[in-house]
Every structure is written in C-alpha cells, then in structure tokens.
Amino acid sequence: MTLSLVVLLPFLGAIAAPLFAQAGRTAIAIASSVPAVVALSILFPHWKTLASGNVFLETYQWLPSLGVSLSFRLDGLSMLFALLILVIGLLVIVYARYYLKPQENIGKFYALLLCFMGAMLGIVLSSNLLLMLIFWELTSVVSFLLIGYWSHKKDARRGARMALAITGGGGLALLAGILLLGHIVGSFELDQVLAAGALIKAHPLYPFALALVLLGAFTKSAQFPFHFWLPHAMQAPTPVSAYLHSATMVKAGVFLLARLYPALAGTEQWFFMVSFTGMLTLLIGAYVALFKHDLKGLLAYSTVSHLGLITLLFGMGTPLAAVAGLFHVVNHATFKASLFMAAGIIDHETGTRDMRHINGLWRFMPHTATLAMVSAASMAGVPLLNGFISKEMFFAEALQINLPGIWVYLPPVIATLAGIFGVAYSARFIHDVFFNGKPLNLPIYPPQEPPRYMKIPVEILVFACIMVGMFPAISVGPLLYAAAAATLGGPVPDYELAVLHGFNLPLLMSFLAFFGGLLLYTQRQRLFDFHARFKEIDEKAVFEALVARLVDRAHQFTARIENGSLQRYATLLVVSAIVVAVMPLSELGISIGANGLTPLDWPTALGALILVVCAFGTVYMHRSRFFALILLSVVGLMVSLGFVRFSSPDLAMTQLSVEVVTIVLLMLALYYMPSWTPVETPLSRRLRDGALALTAGAGMTLVTLAMLTQPFDSISSFFLANSKVGGGGTNVVNVILVDFRGFDTLGEITVLAIAALGIYAVLKGTTLPVPPGDGFGHPWARDNHPVMLRQIARPMLPLALMISAYVFLRGHNMPGGGFVAGLITSVALILQYVASGIVWTQERIPFRYHNVIALGLLFATVAGAGSYAYGYPFLTSAFGYITWPVVGKFEVASALVFDLGVYLAVVGATLLALVSIGRLSPHSATKSLKTRGSRWN
Amino acid sequence: MELTVALVIGALTASGVYLLLRARTFPVVLGLTLLSYGVNLFLFATGRLMTGGQPILGSTETYSDPLPQALVLTAIVIGFAMTAFVVVLALRSQADHQDDHVDGANHNGHQNSTVSQEQSR
Fold it and tell me: Contact at 8 Å (CB) between B105 and A563?
C-alpha cells in the first residue's frame, strides 16, 4: 500500500496544486511540497531494514495475461534514488517560488513538476519492467512539456521537440529491449529478471536485448552521440534544468544501468559498449563545456561529461566501479543542482547568462558567489568536497581497466584529460563570472543579492557537498552501502570512504588534473582561437534537417497514395487484397474437401442462374442507372430466396425487408442524381478493372468451394443446447442475438443509431435542386401521390403494424424478432411517405425519430443493466411464463425488452435516414398534398 | 450445390468489385451493395449448406448452424446503414460540387474535394 502511495502522491498533488495558483506563489509552493514531505515520511522509516539488505515488494494485478503488474520494489538502490528525487524536488519547489514571475502560469509549472516527480519515483520504485517503461515514457513527455514551458519561444519549442524525439525514440528501443528480456526470462518482474542473469547472458538474443536497453539508457542519459538534446533542453526554466536535466531525469539512464546490472553486466559486450560510450561522452562533454559562453550551456555539457563518467564506471563491470558510480550519482546531483540554481540566480539578477557580459559579480553578490564557488570547486574535484572523493575513486578504477597492450593507458589518460578540462571549465565558471574585471552591458544593473529564501536550497545543497566531502562514511556511507548491495545483487566489496587514501597514483592524477586545468584556463585565449578554427557541427541543424526531410518524404508518400480519388484507394485495396491472397490461393487451387459435393437440384440452379445473370446484368447496364437498380433488386430477392433455401428463415425475412428499404433509398438518391453514367474511362482501364474484378471473384469462388467442402466443428452446439434452457426461446438465432451475444447486438444497434444521426447531420441544411425530368427527357409525373396508391397504402398501415407486432412477439420462438419487425414497420411507414408525401405523413407522426432511436438504445441498455439488480452480469436475461386470458400461456423474458430496444432503434434509424434524404429538395419540405400539382415546375 | 454457391459468391464479388472501381458515386454504391450480398452469403456459408434445418428448436431433426445466421442478420442491417450513409455522402458531395465524380480529378472547376468543401463551409 505504502509504496504505490509514494508514487501516487505527487500525481494527486499535480491535480491539487493548480487550485492554489490563485492564492499566490507561496501558497502553491507549500501545497506542492506536501506530497514530497509525506512521501519522504513514508519512505524514511524503512531506512533501517533496507540497510540490512531487506527488499519491500508490493504487487497488484493489472494485466496478468500480458505480464504487466502494478508491482513496486523498495531496496537500497531505489531508496537512494527516491531520496534524491524527493529531497532535490523539495528544494526545487522552494527555489522555483522565487524564480518564477507572479504573472507566469505557476499552476501549470507546479503541476508538471509534481507529475515529473511521480513519474520519476515510478521509474525507480517499479518492480515490473513494463510498468517502469510506462513511467519512463511519462518522464519524457513531462520533460517535453517543461522544456517547452515558455511555449512562446521558438527555441523552447524546438528544444522540447528534440528532447522528446530522442528520449522518446530511445524509450521505444527500450521497450523492444524489455520485451526481449521478458521473452528470454519469461517474466517482466524485476526479481525474476535479476535472478536470471546467467540465462540472459547465455541467450542468443542477449546482444540485441542489451543493445536495445542501452539505446534507451544512453538517449535518456545524454550519451554521445545522443547527447545534443540536453544542451538544447536548457531552454527550460532553470529550476527544471536543475531538477530534470542534471539531478534526476538524466540519471534515469544510469539508474537503468544500475538496476539491470546483475542481469546484463559482466560480459564483454557490456564492457565495450558501455565503457567506451561513457569514455567518449566524458571527454567530449568536458571539452565542449569549456567553450560555451552560456552559463547553462557550460553546465549542460559538464552534465553530459559527468553522465559519461558515471556510465564509464558502470561499464567497467567491477563491483567497486559500480559503487563509485552510485556515489558519483549522488555527488553530481548535489553540486550540479546547486550550480544550476546559482546560474538561475545570476540570470535572474543580471538578465543574461552570457559569460562575456557577466564579470566581477563578487562585489555585487558575495553570498551567492561563495555558494557557487564551493559547488564549482566540488565539480572540479577539489579536496574536502564530495566531487573529489568520487573522482578519486574513478581515477583509481580507471587504472584498473584491463585492456591489451598499450591500450591499458587509454582510460587513465582520458580520465586525466577530462579532469583537466573539468577543472578548466570550473575555473572559468568561478573566475569569469565572479572576478575578471567589471560587468559589461548587463541588462539589469547593478545586480543584487536575490531574496533570502531563494538561496536556502542552494545553501542546503552546498552544505551537503561539504558534509559528504569531509565525512563521507558518516553522511552517505550507509545509504551508499545499501544501494551498492541492491545494485550488485551480491556481496559488496570492501571499500573505504575516506577523504584521503594516502599518496598514491589517483591522487597524482588529481593533482595533474587540478594544475593542468588551471594552466589550461590561463591559456584559454589561445585555446579559444584554436577551437574557433574548426567549424562547429551544429547537431541541432542536422537534427532539424533530418526531421524536415523525413516529414517531406512522408508528405510525398501520402500525396502519392492519397490523391483524393476514391477509385485509386479502392484499386489499391483490391490489389493488395489480391496480392496477399494470391500465394495461399495458388497453393490451394481447386480444392474439394473431404465432405465432397452434394447434388444440385433444379430450382436452386435456376435461382443461382437468375442471380448471376442479374448481377452481371447490373454491371452491364450500370450506365443506365435505373435499370441497373431494378436488376440489383432482383439480385437481392434471389439472395433472400437463397437464405430460405438453406434453412435460414430469419435471414430471409431480414434480407427481404432490407431489400425494400434499400431500393427505396437508392431510388430516392437517384432522383437527385444524373440518371446516366457516361463513358469516361479508357477501354484499357476498364479492361484492367475487369481483370481485377474477375481475379477477386475467382479467388472468392475458390475459397468458398474449399471451405464448403471441409468438415467442420462449430461452437454452435452450445447455443442449440442452451437456447431453450438458458435463454427461454426456441428460435436459436434470435436467442443468440438478444441473449448470448446481446452485447454485440447492443453495439450494432448503436452503430445503426450513429449512422442514422450521421446521415441527419450530413444532410441538415443541405438542399439539392431536382432535375426537371428523369434524364431521358421525360418530365416527372404530374400526379405525385396517385389516388390509388394512397387509398391502398393507408389501410395497409394498421395491417402491417399488426404483422410487425406479431413477428416481434413470436421472435423468441419462431422466425422474427426486433430486427425484422422493425424493418416491417419501417417499410409500412415509408409506404405512407411515398404515397402521401413527407409533410402529410410527418404531420400525423407525433414524435421525432431521434427520440425513437434514443428510446430504443435506452430500452436495450436498461434491459441489459437490469440484470445487475439481481447480481448477474450485464445482459443476463431472465424469463418466466404467464397465462393471459385469451392467448394462453405466454412467455415473458427480459430479453423481450431488449428486443423492443432493437425494434425501436431499427425503426428510428431507418426512417430518420430516409426522411432526411426525402427532405433534401426544398419543394418536398414546403409543399404538401394540398398544394400538389406541378411540383417541379 | 457447393460449386453453385461458390460461383454465385464469386460472381457477386466480381460484379461488386468492378462497380466499386467506377468513377461515379452511384455505380460505387451499387458495387458496395453487390459486394455486401457476396460477403453476407460467404459468412452465411461458413455454417455450411443445409436443407430444411432451420434452427428453430423442435421443428426438425438436425439444425443448421445458428451462429453465422445471427452474425449475418446484424450484418445485413448494418450493411443497410452503411449503404445509406455512403449514399448520403454521395448526395452531399453532389450538393456541394454539383458533381458525382469520385476519381479526384477536376470536373466542374472545383480544386479538389477537400478544398472546395472547406470553401463551401
């Protein structure tokens, strides 16, 4: 309960925080810190037991069939990260209260910040890899929103998009990697994956899984060559940079390396991929950082470099290096977050972040300067500060890497070189900003110390830097030990956290880095000139160009396929269907299954002949639309006869009544349309279409033939056996519709309703002029509503309604039911419209068809939900028998109410559709029988 | 018998597909209707052909498969709704463009269907 609560709390806070936005910045900052404080107080008591190697698990089922569960895990590693996320989160919340301006959208800011906190906690506390991935992607999304927080800035939007593209793409790779891992292990649960390290590393898919997981980790942790999104993410407000892009989110990749360490690490592939990526990133980041004039740019590249350092440590694959990596995660988070906050203060007070303008701030803000200088010294690795200790450990480990031959010198040399650059850019941060003459053209002059409380988060972090730097074993030792134990999943090597280990080679490297760095900084002008000779590759431009090209290609491709021609779409569809089917069909050939053919009787043959002739006739005559329609209706009639022939009375009745409605509909449509289709396509095109059509037809024939002669086993015996006892009806088709598969039917009548309402909406307000004649030059008949038709149609209505009621009521046991009855009613009403006109009929129908549809859906849903009242699942039907005076014993089933809903929906939908079309011409709506006559003149 | 039904379904499919590929709305609607006859018959035929086996309990000795029948019954009604909707789209297109082409080409001087529809709003 408690772990899921820790993850949930910030999300709840994200919902609540914006409510305090009106009350001012202090109120919202206090409200936002509540979730973090509560989460801390929940986690902290577990502290003792974790140190002794305990693991808390908490699991809820979510999608067991997919292996996804809501399972959470608290061990030393997740505790370390969770504390980092919560504590720095709290400090950032306080800091942001002073950083943001009152007129900014602070509600959005704090909501997103808390969302991020929850997502990040989710990553580190998840015990299910897929669940972790969900939170992983969530951090990418929230990071996107936070980088683009000042959405009016173009650079912010671009930076946000780039970060999302890179980290989101990496997330996809990670998903693939996790799926592979899950495939290898057979579970996505972390404890099983971690326990299956040997199995994973021996599996042939291991290199792929490893590469994909690393792709996810490297993109998130800004490793070369994916590092370039991080500097562009500096468009975010500085609290975001401090929190997401130095302390926590970019550490998620490193966290993943640590988390999956027992499962993936220890192989050659791991060593080469991880350590070399880390080494490159370490060096490139440190080098580029020196040349950045933007304060935050310098810090961003420094972050890239330090992430490379941590990655390199994990890549070495030795337990001690992993301990050093974890230690540096904590140290980097503390000094880098405080540096970002200091940079934010400077930006806030001077109006710029350009180090060519900011100089000599020591005189204006000595307090801030002192804090920033301590942090920067820690970044440089000055003794008695925390950065020094982990850097010493790093140097010591770099000396331990076993590479063949001369390569053994590579890691120490690169480490020292990166150390030199690290000292140089730290020196620049200190000297350029706080000394080095006077400020030049500051937008805000003179700069002042920031508000007192804005400095408190920085002070706390700097205090932590010093404490850890002077008393590492007391301050961070136990936590680090627990984290290391959880990471390694085995015995923790002996190590000593001490300020000095005596005079040894790592210390010499530190000295070399320190003085080399200072020397490099004094010679910086030459270095700058040297650097300026190279054309800098603008990764952003490359990336943007790549994206633009991709979008272009996509547009071209879309334009080629989607050119606005239904003909082309239909052709593509038919061709692809044929292409897909041609292989299996050619293998199938003319296949007669084990059941063989049954003899053909003459009436069936005759019916089939009429059907085929009329179908081809429809095609042959299709230019003359009216005749084609007549032939089409014959096809429909033959189809319904076919249903009768093959034992399906329900289908026959439905097909027959639908046929009537369809033909009326098409005739109505034809009334507004040209009645003739001219020859427009060239013969070659028609021949091609004919060939496609015949191929499709032949394919269907082969498939049908093969299918019909195969023996088969149907699940229908269940329906036949249970129709009477379970559903209370003998018409199995109807019982399936209203009972066994009632939910499907409910969906289907909903579709019907939506289609009808769609028709109404599409045609509302549309008018179509009616052509003066029928296309062959004949004028329309003057007598629109012939007396004979009217006189016959009107008495038909009650008769038809009675039949409809009869068909409806008997539907449960005999052919019939809601669908058929609804169609019969519709036909009877449509006949009135045809015979007497829309206005006359509408005047006599006291309800709107919309309401009929709604009522139908309501009946069906209520009948379904009624079963809840008796504790049964949705749409369980009940039935009983009552004896009526005249009729006798009569069955009442709750399914009857459902069927009534079907009936109403069908009637409403059919009539709404047809009446909407009938209303299209302005004449039919205004004129009625009373003014009939020469309507169309 | 099976061969006849297979041929009928094939003929319906062929006629439907040919009309579906025409350049005007009305033939396309006819084609869709023919195609849905074919598809419905095919679905129905998955329950195999049987004479005098209506699935009404007590009316006969052996019953035909009721499940495809139930499926096809709703398919027929939905098919009608779909046809009606397509017809209405055709009418709307006719009202907006005074034209019933669906080949995407420029006929009555309108740019293309999407652009002119936006203009007409």
Answer: no
Token look-up 């800091």 returns A95
Q: Is A897 helix (H, G, I), strand (E, B) or coil?
A: helix
Would the CB atoms of A646 and B44 count as touching at under 8 Å?
A: yes
pLDDT at A656: 93
Burial class (CB in 10 A: 0-12, 13-18, 19+), A443: exposed
A717: its two tokens: 């015996």
Distance CA A444, CA A453 (A): 21
User: Most A CBs within 10 Å: which of B41, B73, B97, B103, as the mutation test of the A interface?
Assistant: B73
Class of domain B2-120: mainly alpha
Cβ A917–B81 below 8 Å, yes or no?
Answer: no
Structure tokens at A8: 């949930």
Identify the H or E element spanning A766.
none
CA neighbor of B85 nearest in space, from A637, A115, A207, A662: A662
Percent of chain A past pLDDT 70, that is, above it, reads 95
Candidates A838, A777, A228, A326; CA nearest to A536 is A228
Stretch among A690-699, A843-852, A912-921, B102-111 having the lowest mean pLDDT: B102-111
Query: What is residue A65's DSSP assignment?
Result: G
Dist. CA A643–CA A659, nearest whole Å: 13
The 10s digit of each residue's pLDDT in A471-491 is 988 888 888 988 998 888 878
CB A218 within 8 A of CB A278: no
Chain centroid, CA A459 distance in Å: 41
Between CA A180 and CA B55 the distance in angstroms is 49
Q: What single letter denotes the amino acid at residue B43?
A: L
User: Is there a contact between A716 and B66 if contact means CB atoms under 8 Å apart?
Assistant: yes
Per residue in A733-779, pLDDT (tens digit) is 888 888 888 888 899 999 999 999 999 999 888 888 777 776 667 77
Say which residues have a Cβ less than 8 Å from residue A175's Cβ, sequence separation at least 6.
A133, A216
Please state the pTM of the whole predicted model.
0.70
Residue A743 CA: distances (Å) to CA of A108, A411, A775? 42, 66, 47
The two three-digit tokens of residue A697, written as one number? 């037809």
Cα A706 to Cα A703: distance, rounded to the nearest angstrom: 5
Determine which helix (DSSP H) or strand (DSSP E) holds A397, and give its type and residue range. helix A386-398
pLDDT at B44 over 90: yes
Domain ranges of chain A: 275-416+432-470, 526-562, 731-937
CA distance B12 to chain A (A): 6
Residues of chain B with Cβ-Cβ distance to A649 below 8 Å are: 54, 56
CA dist A511 → A393, A429, A500, A517 (Å): 14, 20, 13, 10
For residue A230 the two structure tokens come to 């991080």
Enter the ipTM. Answer: 0.90
The DSSP line for A61-98 is: EEEGGGTEEEEEEE-HHHHHHHHHHHHHHHHHHHHHHH
Q: Say if the Cβ atoms of B30 and A628 lie within 8 Å.
A: yes
DSSP letter string, A275-316: IHHHHHHHHHHHHHHHT--BHHHHHHHHHHHHHHHHHHHHHH
Q: Do residues A638 and A611 lie in contact, with contact meaning Cβ atoms separated by under 8 Å?
A: yes
Q: Using CA atoms, how far apart are residues B120 and B109, in angstroms rounded to an integer?
A: 14
C-alpha to C-alpha distance for A387 and A463, rounded to whole angstroms: 13
- Residues 6+ positions from A242 with CB-CB distance below 8 Å: A88, A92, A95, A336, A337, A340, A341, A344
Q: Which two tokens stand for residue A856?
A: 């139908």
Burial class (CB in 10 A: 0-12, 13-18, 19+), A603: exposed
Across chain A, what does the average pLDDT equal?
A: 88
> DSSP class of residue A779?
B
Mean pLDDT over residues A437-453, rounded? Answer: 85
Q: What is the pLDDT confidence band of residue A275, given thresholds at 50, 70 and 90? A: very high
What is the four-CA torsion angle of A5, A8, A9, A13, rounded to 10 degrees? -160
Give the closest of B6, B11, B25 to A708, CB-based: B6
